[in-house]
Amino acid sequence: MSEPSTPSTPSTPSEPANTPRTVLVTGAGTGIGRATARAFAAEGAHVLAVGRRPAPLAETADGHPGITTLPADITAEDGPETVVRTALERHGRIDVLVNNAAVVNTESLRTYSRASVRPQLATNLLAPVLLTQAALPALEDSRGVVVNVTTSVGQRGWPGNSLYAAGKAALEVLTRSWAVELAPLGIRVVAVAPGAVETPIADHSGYTPEQRAAIRKWQLDHTPLGRVGRPEEVAWAITRLASPQASFITGVILPVDGGAVVA
After folding, report:
1. Which of 54, 158, 232, 258 could anchor a disulfide with 225, C-beta 3.0 to 4.6 Å?
2. Catalytic: 207?
3. Within 10 Å of residue 186's Cβ, how many Cβ atoms?
């Protein structure tokens, strides 16, 4: 019997040797998005950093020549098409799409209204669907990767913030479904589910300092490692799952949460 051959690292058929990958990151102005954009740029990728506010995006790109910025609203009617078109105009390809942008507010089941529900669903769920759809032809050409950023809370419960958790849980279902649906096209789909991470998302939510402190205490009480994570730790997981060395991984949701999801 002959010995099994050692598998070689798969190559991307449409990618010439030494061609830098192009990575599109939403919500790249702060936190996990900023850390992710910088981590991919440090690997030599061309990164299109997308967000609503120009100033934070400029800070993300400062000192990182591989990052270019695009101030854009991904929930706008033409938002997904604008983002994809810009990436292709600047770099000619899209290899990795990181659906990271998200919003949270102080509403709960007793106080939800159509006006408060729509922005969360538009940003956290609908925008990733439409942006991924718009990027499909380019991702098929590159045999690319979609990385959805969800939350470990989506696998449990978040009292008082159920809509945020529900939207992220839905994104995890989409991750599994798309992984199967897009596998014949050579596209991988994965997700990273952060736990308590030091980002400014709560600062923009309308929570008071006392409410933010209470939320952080609740998170730490449910985190076995007993500390808050850093955006760079989540970015590391995103870049690893999107790397060519992870070419046999799809449909997985990786918690980066200090053990919260299993506690």
Report:
1. 258
2. no
3. 17
